[in-house]
Amino acid sequence: MKTILTLCLCIPVFVFAQIPNNSFEDWAGYTTEEPVGWITNNHPTHISVSKTTESYTGLFAAKVISNGPSFEGPAPGWLKTTLIPTEVPKKLTLYYKCDSILPPAYGEIAVNQYNNGIFTELGKVEILILNQSFELITISLSSSQIPDSIEIKISSITVNNGVTYEGYISFIVDDIVLGYTLGLTELSIDERLSLYPNPVKGYLTVEVPIDFDIQNGIIQIMDTNGKALKNTTLGNRKQVLFIGDLTPNTYLLRVMNHKRSMFNRFIVQ
Q: pLDDT exceeding 70 applies to what percent of the chain?
């Protein structure tokens, strides 16, 4: 028999779609190095997106400059990725800093959706001034339904006056998170998603029910404010996670695939 418990939270809960390589820790390439899971307009002689150790979290971040392939000067540079959300997206957050800008150039972070073959913009923000330390950007998204897919595009924009491109910008982005509200202050906890031992100290075993499709499955650990702390691939119905680096507290664990999500909570001693 299915058992449902309820975890009451005092503030709205946020869960997060899985953005590939959202902190830009993984890079690869043949002629040019690119962040894994992202597409760039890098060219062997015109690098517009590069790896930098000036990161907000982790070891690396992505640096975007106006240096696309062009004979007319520093053309716009960009990187983008596409993902399939499981619920209605409400916001995109990321950290950035801008170390060089020459108007009329500017930075742009845009979120677009595809629905039934139609491309529309959900939200956008522009970087217009220097900012030498990392700052949080939050972009509110206008979607009212679950999109077929979402595109996130980060660009260094320069302006073509008909003869040459004018302006230049260099900025860094890191720790990009797509969030959507559950619209509830109560979160249904499905006890069929088994977590043990609970309370736990070092290693937590996650066991999903037989009717949960583990293909393309993801395990996500969040704090009770909805902040994503860990993401990993669900490879088996029974999987062991190391959680010894979490401080003693109560946490939420979410298992999701392309169709459904399951939640449970655990306590780290």
A: 87
